[in-house]
Amino acid sequence: MSFSACGAARDLTASEFVGRIKRLRGWQRRERLDALLIISEVNRHYFTGLKASNGMLLSELPGAPVFYTDFRYLLAARKRLTFMEVGSIWRPADEAAVLAEFGRAWRRVGYEGQMPAARFLAWREALPHVEWVNLDQGVAGLRAVKSRAEQTLIRAAVKANDAALACVLRQVRTGMSEWDIGGLVRHAAETLGQGEAFETVVCVGRNAAECHHQPGNSRLRPGQALLIDMGVLRDYYCSDLTRTVCVGAAPSSDLANIYRVVLDANQKAIRAIRPGRRCCDIDAVARRAIERAGYGEYFGHSLGHGLGLEVHEAPSFSTACRTVLEPGMVLTVEPGIYLPGRFGVRIEDVVLITEGGCEVLSQSPRALRI
Hints:
The chain is of the alpha+beta class. The chain has 2 domains: 14-144, 3-Layer(aba) Sandwich (Creatine Amidinohydrolase, Chain A, domain 1), CATH 3.40.350; 148-360, Creatinase/methionine aminopeptidase superfamily (Creatine Amidinohydrolase, Alpha-Beta Complex). 36% of the residues lie in helices and 19% in strands. It contains 10 helices and 16 strands. It has helices at 14-30, 41-48, 71-80, 95-102, 117-126, 136-144, 148-171, 178-192, 253-272, 279-292, and strands at 35-38, 56-60, 66-69, 85-88, 108-111, 131-134, 201-204, 225-230, 241-246, 304-306, 313-317, 330-333, 336-339, 343-346, 349-353, 358-360. The protein has a 6-stranded mixed beta sheet with strand order 4-3-2-1-5-6. A hairpin with a 3-residue loop joins strand 13 (336-339) and strand 14 (343-346). The longest helix is centred in the middle third of the chain and has 24 residues, at 148-171.
């Protein structure tokens, strides 16, 4: 059975979500949680396949999971979620009373730590006898390893991103502003994908020393660094890609040298990736390469992050992340060097962890001069 495009991603079947729910409830049993309350849009979407702005996934043990949503999504939910009971949700003003009734026998309950504090305080007041357990880390762990079906969707998103960047670079000319180039990206993301996965970062010259520069009216001059960090959505899954290029003239020797250092760090990190290694160890490989070149203080962010329904997911290639890599994880590798007042360089690729190492999904050229 396949879902239509307006519900779950069209290449995902009911069995995909049945498997996700089973893994969730297996984790719930291991944590000895009587109930799980999932209200965030992205986690509801991950476990049910339904994209909706309102709802709650309730998993009780013993018992079967139930998805509650309001009138706007009720018919769609009942049509698509054939693997789960669907119920009409209560009014927001009645939620505390409803949970008080539901939870008379609950003792340990999982909640999402990112939920609004006021809502959580109301839950806690309604169920004062309950021990509340933050489920964020557990759910992040479940989402970190992508299924074969998810890998297919991410591949498509990355391929669309490669095509979109190629389309943009064919149209870039000196004299264009950052806004102009950002407009090219938005158009390409809409025509070759289903929109941007995040607000595109476009920066020229000294602006590229700002990791997340907000595009403005600065215009591209010949030989300047042009940094584009962009993502394309396909069937709700994200891609992420950064390239730094020069247009119209040869780069300066300083820019070319920094580019070589960043590319070397990118490639060394990718070669070091394999199952069983900790994320922090991969970050260290790239960081060491940049430090040995004398630019350690100018690489101030993590090496990369997980990618999926969100552009930033667990795990991360960072100094603090000790997660052990497993086949099926998808992460970015994006070392950078940023020299204030001069320029910045970042090169980012998406990698899939495999049984023997990793596969680089991004196929955009890595040449500085175009």
